[in-house]
Structures are given as C-alpha cells and as structure tokens.
C-alpha cells in the first residue's frame, strides 16, 4: 500500500512549467506528492528539511512527465469504417464518401442503434490503450447521434468511463457535427430544432464541459455555428471548433471572436486567422492523424503559430473515419515528422497546451498545487517520446497521486 504523502524521486523530470522554456528539465528530481496534489518539485538536493521524514518511491533512472492529455477525441462511437478506408484507397475522397451517405453518417447509424452499455463496452478497450500510454485526461465528443436521445447517450457514456477507469473525461457537445438524414438540406432547421435544444438538455443534466462544432462545406457554416456559440455563451459554456480542416470558411476567426478555448485541425488557416487566435489566446489543436489518414497535403501553419505566439496542442482526433488512431505518442511522432514541430513542442502539446485547450488550470505541468497526474517512462530523454514509433516506453502512470502499473 502506497503512503498518501511521499516523495517520488527520479533521475529526470520534464516539468513543462511555462516560462522555463522547452521541457523544463529538472535533474535528480524530487516530487513531493501530498494526496492527489503535488506539494513541492525540484532537485532532490534542495528538498526542504520538513519533508525529510517522508517515504521515498524511487523511479530510478527513469523520466517523469506530466500525465498525457488527449484533448480531441471522438472515442465514444459504435462500429468501424474499414470499408470506407478501402474506398478511399481506390480513389474516393473523404468528402465524396460523406456526400454519398457514408462517412460520419455511417457511424451515426451504428451509434443510434447501440445502447449505452454497448457504447461503453466498445469504448473501454480504447481508453485502456490510452491509459497504457500514460494518458490521464481524455476529451470525448458527442456528434454521432445528431438526435436528442443519442447525443445524450453518448455524453452519459463518456461520463461513465470516468467511473470505470482512473482517468478524467472532459466532454464536448458536438451536435453540430453533421446534418442528419432526416434534416438533409435543412441545416438551419437542424441547428434550431435539434442541436440547440439538445445542448440545453445535455447541459441541464451536467453532461457538457464545452461546446464544439464542425465548420466545413460538408457540415455547418459560420452563421449556424455562431448561433450555437451564442447559446453556449448564455449557458456559461466554453467553446471550441473544428475549423479550416478541408477549406477556409473563417471558422477560426469566428471561434476566436467567441473567446474559444481552441480551434482544431487548421490546415487551411491563413495568417489573419492566426492573428485572431493569438489575440484571443485560442489554442491551435494540431491533429496529424487526420492529415495522415486523409493524405492531406496542405500543412497547418506551424511557423505562423510560432511567430504569433499561438500555443499548439497535439491530439489524436481518434475517430472511426478520418483518424482511426488512439495513440497520443504516435500523434507526437507525426506532429514532429509531418509538421516539423519540435519534440519539445509535441510534448508540451500533449501536456501543458492540451490542458489549456480544455481549460484545465491544474493539469499539464509538474508544479506545486498541480494534480499529481504523471507518467513515468523507460526513457532517458523526453525527445524519446516523440521519436519512437510503437513499443510504448511507459513504466507506470500516476493518477491523483496513485501509482498504476500498466498490465504487462
Ligand atoms: N473532423 C474530423 O476529423 C472528424 N470529425 C470532424 O469534424 C471526423 C469524424 C468522422 O469521420 O467520423
Ligand atoms: Fe475531430
């Protein structure tokens, strides 16, 4: 049995503390864990005398980082879309598949037909895979129901995950993901008659942490998303947006105007959009899994984000269509190799900046007062996390001060 107040010692900790730049490395580190929180962090040689009597849990030569945060997933859904993968390999585009009634709508059909227990059973193996990669927070969106009952069922399922596994779940209401078949050609009516009332109902049940939308030619325009965001604001809910993934409709500018936590994808974003995001402090969520899967060639404007000081998070976008990838470590690798993000940016992207993209003030870095959510790696240097492809180097994960070893 592990004591509730103790010292975690490790050869090296990447604290990711803002202002320290890069990884915020501390060598021969000591982390004082007090219940679910960190009380002190620094070089072991400087440990204050008042902690002298505490037990030491020694991580040896390993590396400690904040627990990973996957800040953009569609993890709750039914079914899979491997046949669509085959169609795309034969030349069909993502939009063609979607307009033909496949794509998001095929997952909508499967998800509407699945009960809550089935959705939970389908989700847990993926949650376990993420936990085995050191993940401590997962954002999960609705958006495969597109009717009141199924949207609520998805969100309830997402909440239940956090009662079944030691992980924090942040939900996003994504009722504005696609126009369902019963509203084909009537996107405005769908937003007003289904999406907005469902958001109100989900919020009343405490199921919504943020409101998201898909601003795209195959989904909703900025006027429709703007109506939804106005309601989110009256409910006191933060917003985020899938923007500029396949084309530039001005979604990021709209999101920034609403003080959005994040705008996500952004391959087709222009400099004016980057400037708007910088002004509102909106995080750019970089999703290389979708870029890779769709064989996109338009790169997100990484250099402009850097130049204008827009924080970049990195996430999996785990979903059965455009990003069937539930590995944040692989997302880090892709962010570096495909987008030339630095390994330090990629690690900050799945910790410090991912926490910001979710509005979580007490996660994503190793510092006094932060939750004791950590990952302990069989690694010497933090660049190893984005450098490896497969062969998860996780030794253990700490969630709220409790150490969990992955099943081996
Ligand atoms: N953009 C995406 O990449 C996912 N949703 C979205 O708005 C794709 C979802 C899917 O294809 O099922
Ligand atoms: Fe997405």
Report what the structure shows:
The protein has 408 residues and is of the alpha/beta class. The protein folds into two domains: 5-66 and 366-404, Urease, subunit C, domain 1 (Roll), CATH 2.30.40; 68-357, Metal-dependent hydrolases (TIM Barrel, Alpha-Beta Barrel), CATH 3.20.20.140. 36% of the residues lie in helices and 22% in strands. The strands form two sheets. Strands 1, 2, 3, 4, 5, 14, 15 and 16 form an eight-stranded mixed sheet that branches. Strands 6-7-8-9-10-11-12-13 form an eight-stranded parallel sheet. Helix 12 crosses helix 13 (343-349). The longest helix is centred in the middle third of the chain and has 18 residues, at 187-204. The relative contact order is 0.16.
- Total number of strands: 16
Would you identify the regions where 5 or more consecutive residues have pLDDT less than 50? none
Q: Give me the secondary-structure category.
A: alpha/beta
List the ions, cofactors and other small molecules found in this model: 3-[(4S)-2,5-dioxoimidazolidin-4-yl]propanoic acid, fe (iii) ion
Helix coverage percent of residues?
Answer: 25-40%
| Radius of gyration, taken over Cα atoms and rounded to an integer in Å | 21 Å
**Number of DSSP helical runs:** 15
CATH class of the largest domain: Alpha Beta
Q: Which geometry do the CA atoms define?
A: globular
Q: How many domain regions?
A: 2
CATH architecture of the largest domain: Alpha-Beta Barrel
Looking at CATH, the homologous superfamily of the largest domain is Metal-dependent hydrolases
Taking the alpha carbons of the first and last residues, their distance comes to: 20 Å
* Average of per-residue pLDDT values: 96
Q: What does the largest sheet look like? A: 8 strands, mixed
CATH topology of the largest domain: TIM Barrel
Beta content comes to 15-25%
